[in-house]
Design goal:
The complex is a heterodimer of chains A (438) and B (505). Chain A is α/β, with parallel strands linked by helices. Chain A folds into two domains: 233 residues, Periplasmic binding protein-like II (D-Maltodextrin-Binding Protein, domain 2, 3-Layer(aba) Sandwich), CATH 3.40.190.10; 187 residues, D-Maltodextrin-Binding Protein, domain 2. Helices cover 44% and strands 17% of the residues of chain A. Chain A contains 19 helices and 18 strands. In chain A, a hairpin with a 6-residue loop joins strand 9 and strand 10. The N terminus of chain A is likely disordered. In chain B, helix 5 packs antiparallel against helix 6 and helix 10 runs parallel beside helix 15. Chain B has 22 helices and two strands. Classes of the chains: A alpha/beta (438), B mainly alpha (505). Chains A and B meet through helix 1, helix 2, helix 11, helix 13 and helix 18 of A and helix 5, strand 2, helix 6, helix 7 and helix 8 of B.
Chain lengths: 438, 505
């Protein structure tokens, strides 16, 4: 008896030892590196070039220990980013950097970052639709000052909007090509300007037009085309969706009609790629990430354009779209705030954006970089530019996705239960607008 | 292949066996009235305290005192040491957390950026999760410490009694030797117990605690605080309001979870057992080859198989092109099993088909295990019982019904229960087959981020992983945990009745 309890006591001691570490109150880990010698122009604006240069110089002077940074970039960008990081190190020869590059897709960055903000990378890239959740969770450092270039004026206005929440800039725009447009096989589709003509062409050739209805990201374009909204409220959490108002049922009917022709088919990314490769798909509403597949498959006949118009109700409406941007964010829990910000600026600078387009064919958000002839001649990027007037940056709360996905699925499968369209919309809107529980 | 072990109850008449195995009441031995172990524990403790010497009474505050009085100096010092450690831990480690345990923190993180030094100045903020974790650990350690404290008093009292009756009292060296000798099993058990505490008990306690907080996407530490909300999350799970369809989704998903667990368990058991019987039959040649063939399926990692199968059965996948080529799709459309609006069989994309396919695919990946188990059991069926039955001219069916099956059920009963519980939590099959493929058309389910094919556990995973709704996920976790415990306890107490063993052995 005695010994058994002794063993329990042993256990308790060991558990104490193991756990006492986590019992300590959180110590703010954003400890200042060293107090920088106060600069002469302490009242000066940070945006002022001199002050900015001074701040950077002070940072260099204050940095005595090696700077450890972790950077996350997508799997495909690893090689390119590694090169950029080397260039960055070369810019500051007096400082020793230990920069670790990790692979994390822009589309899933949020999931990984939010699972443990403090353990996430110091600088990471992400798709701009995640910005609200990241800001809500305190995973992005507000960009209150810039040092090497002015983020707000150097980039396209929409990209700066997309990188801001509530009027405050929280990230550095990196690319402006993350939206969707249409690419098609010009040997089949003669007139890409309206969906009805496309359907005729596709039918005649016995081919399909791939649109992913059961994804809120694409479904948005049809409702927005008639002016119905789905946006995030000012609280940054709940949504306002007006799809069930006048005109909503017309949109549903138009989608049902399009699907009923048999030429417009609901396909996810994987199926679309397979369809393009095996020749069953002749046009797709999709993004730049799949455009290369189509370009390879269709060769000379590969063309890209803005989304077509669609006959909704009794008029032709230009399909709208979500524009998408990839952004670079700085983790507010980083131990090297100054260097993280400088690195984020460098990763999104005009020079690196130009290099990124040349190496990876990603459309720049930087105004100067985007103005180059090479960028303008790129079919996909010019199609995105043509779509730009009809697109809005995607800003929507998490409750949007499941209900929109289901609505799209019901419409894409031809409303099998023949539910009243208004009721379908009402239920979907109810889910989308649902209050986020406190 | 036949096991020729000698069985003691070889000649036991059949009648008696039936009686024993089928009427548990008859074999019940009257037991002593049960004393609640908690009551007994405190009773014993009270006895120690009232009958113990003054030093034992003082030991309630200064823990090693009684040992030292009994001349067990090293032990006394060690116990003092543990107490000191505990006090130090409580003051410096646990107290700051426990102080905020009732609110889970009040100071939100605020950072002020200084553009000149390029640094954030951060206030001394509270991290709700750290507070929760630290407090739960502290409470748990306090509980362990209390057990230690009580056992210490009892041990002193034991020693006191030994001294009073002038018997030998173990020296520290003897105690130590005993731990490595006679009571080595206690020492050995220490490490698994530590493992269980760190890996199971603490996380479960945290899970239960989170179920009573508002820990979700809007309250993610370290930037935001979360706090206690009482039973609100449980209420939310069981009610359906205009703004929340959690109640509806929970009911639908719970129904399917049970249905699935039942079908998955029963189908695997029956089919796996039948195949094992078949392979075991005298008519089948090259038994080893057939057995190996089935076992090979186990060797391939399940997720590889499942992801491949998911692609095979995709709407534009391999199976669909085969089916439409041989005209199966058209046939199914004609008899009304497939909607005429679509040109493929929605294997994994319509609720009915998906559920059917999931059970079917589960049979395919699951029965090799069942075959293994059943083969083992079949090879161990007491041969003499079958021979006796054959002498009695029992038909093969009668032998199967009266000899083989009762024996198999006796051995397999516990496995069936664990299988059922495992299937309630069978994450792999459902998640890997339907994730990114299955889109629900039930809007009420979609509004709660659920799907018709979801099990409670996959729903839980989606809520945590995609919506960071830790509070609801914890509630579901608690519910799954309770369901599984109830099933396990109930079934084990009924099926694994120890007294039945002698029937067969």
């Amino acid at each position: 008896m005695k010994k058994r309890f002794l063993s329990i006591a042993l256990v308790s001691i060991m558990v104490t030892a193991a756990i006492s570490g986590c019992g300590n109150p959180e110590v703010a880990n954003d400890t200042p590196v060293t107090e920088a010698p106060s600069s002469d122009n302490s009242g000066g604006e940070a945006a002022d070039n001199n002050a900015a240069a001074d701040a950077v110089q002070n940072l260099i002077n204050a940095t005595t220990d090696p700077v450890d940074l972790t950077v996350w970039a997508s799997e495909e960008d690893q090689e390119f980013t590694q090169g950029v990081l080397e260039d960055f190190k070369a810019l500051y020869p007096d400082v020793t950097f230990n920069i670790t590059l990790g692979a994390e897709s822009e589309s899933t960055a949020k999931d990984t970052v939010l699972s443990d903000v403090e353990a996430a990378a110091d600088v990471y890239t992400f798709a701009h639709d995640q910005i609200n959740d990241l800001v809500n969770a305190g995973a992005l450092q507000e960009v209150q000052a810039t040092y090497t270039y002015d983020v707000a004026t150097a980039n396209v206005e929409t990209s700066v909007e997309a990188a801001s929440v509530g009027g405050k800039l929280y990230a550095y725009p990196m690319t402006a090509d993350n939206g969707y447009f249409m690419f098609y096989d010009s040997s089949v589709i003669k007139d890409p300007s309206n969906l009805e003509a496309m359907i005729e062409d596709a039918k005649a050739a016995g081919k399909k037009i791939a649109i992913q209805f059961n994804n809120g990201w694409y479904l948005y374009s049809f409702f927005k085309a008639v002016g119905l909204e789905a946006t995030l409220n000012d609280d940054g959490k709940t949504n306002t969706c007006t799809w069930n108002e006048a005109g909503g049922t017309d949109v549903c009917q138009a989608i049902l009609d399009a699907v009923a022709t048999g030429a417009v088919v609901n396909m996810d990314d994987g199926t679309t790629v397979t369809g393009i490769k095996d020749g069953t798909v002749c046009a797709a509403v999709n993004g730049i990430w799949n455009a290369q597949v189509a370009a390879d498959a269709w060769g000379e006949n590969y063309q890209a354009a803005k989304l077509p118009t669609m006959h909704i109700g009794d008029k032709d409406c230009q399909l709208s779209s979500y524009s998408g941007f990839k952004l670079v964010g700085v983790n507010p829990h980083t131990k090297n705030m100054g260097w993280s910000m400088l690195l984020a600026e460098y990763l999104t600078s005009e020079e690196v954006q130009t290099e990124r387009f040349e190496a990876r064919n990603l459309g720049p958000s930087n105004i100067n970089a985007a103005a180059s002839d090479a960028v303008k001649n790129d079919k996909a990027i010019s199609a995105l530019a043509a779509q730009a007037p009809y697109s809005t940056p995607q800003v929507i709360g998490g409750n949007y996705w499941s209900p929109a996905e289901t609505l799209g699925q019901i419409l894409a499968s031809g409303n099998p239960d023949n539910t009243d369209l208004q009721k379908l919309l009402d239920t979907a809107v109810e889910g989308i607008n649902a209050p986020v529980s406190e | 292949m036949v096991n020729y072990r000698y069985y003691q109850h070889k000649h036991k008449p059949k009648k008696q066996r039936r009686k024993l195995s089928y009427s548990p009441k008859a074999s019940k031995i009257p037991k002593e009235p049960r004393v609640n172990p908690i009551v007994a524990f405190f009773k014993e403790l009270g006895e120690c305290l009232s009958n113990g010497s003054l030093f034992i009474k003082l030991s309630t505050v200064f823990m090693g005192l009684g040992h030292i009085y009994n001349c067990q100096f090293i032990k006394g010092l060690l116990v003092f040491g543990v107490q000191a450690l505990y006090i130090v831990y409580m003051i410096f480690g646990a107290a700051p957390n426990l102080a905020k345990f009732s609110t889970l923190g009040t100071v939100k993180r605020e950072a002020i950026f200084d553009p000149i030094t390029m640094q954030n100045t951060v206030n001394d903020y509270d991290n709700s999760f750290t507070i929760l974790l630290g407090s739960v650990c502290a409470l748990f350690i306090t509980f362990l410490f209390f057990l230690f404290w009580a056992s210490n008093i009892k041990s002193m009292y034991e020693t006191q009694k030994l001294i009073e009756s002038r018997k030998h009292v173990n020296t520290f060296r003897e105690d130590f030797k005993e731990i490595l000798g006679n009571k080595f099993h206690v020492t050995l058990l220490t490490f698994p117990v530590i493992g269980v505490i760190l890996m199971n008990i603490i996380p479960i306690l945290i899970l239960v605690a989170v179920a009573f907080t508002n820990y979700d996407q809007n309250h993610l530490p370290p930037s935001e605080l979360f706090t206690w909300v009482g039973f609100r999350n449980f209420v939310k799970l069981f009610t359906q309001t205009t703004t929340s369809s959690f109640g509806y989704a929970f009911r639908k998903i719970l129904e399917w979870t049970f249905l699935w667990a039942f079908f998955a368990t029963v189908s695997n058991f029956i089919l796996g057992h039948l195949i094992a019987l078949l392979i075991n039959s005298k008519l089948i040649k090259i038994k080893r080859f057939w057995r190996t063939l089935f076992i090979v399926t186990i060797a391939v990692p399940q997720f590889v198989t499942l992801l491949l199968v998911r692609n095979f059965f995709a709407d534009s996948g391999l199976f669909n092109s085969i089916c439409s080529n041989i005209g199966l799709t058209a046939f199914l459309q004609n008899i009304g099993l497939v909607s005429k609006n679509i040109s493929y069989i929605p294997f994994l994309t319509s609720p009915g088909w998906a559920k059917f396919m999931i059970v079917l695919i589960n049979i395919w990946v699951g029965i090799p295990y069942q075959i293994l188990i059943s083969t083992g059991i079949l090879l161990n069926i007491p041969r003499d019982q079958i021979e006796a039955a054959m002498i009695d001219r029992a038909s093969p069916y009668q032998i199967f019904k009266n000899v083989t099956m009762p024996y198999v059920m006796f051995v397999e009963g516990p496995t069936l229960v664990t299988d059922f519980v495992r299937n309630i939590n069978n994450f792999n099959i459902i998640y890997l087959l339907t994730q990114d493929v299955y889109v629900t058309t039930d809007q009420a389910l979609a509004n709660s981020h659920g799907k018709e094919v979801d099990l409670l556990v996959t729903w839980l995973f989606r809520l945590t992983n995609e919506y960071y709704d830790y509070k609801m996920a914890s509630v579901i976790g608690v519910i799954v945990f309770s369901i599984c415990s109830v099933f396990t306890i109930l079934s084990f107490s009924r099926i694994v009745a120890g007294e039945r063993e002698e029937v067969f052995m």
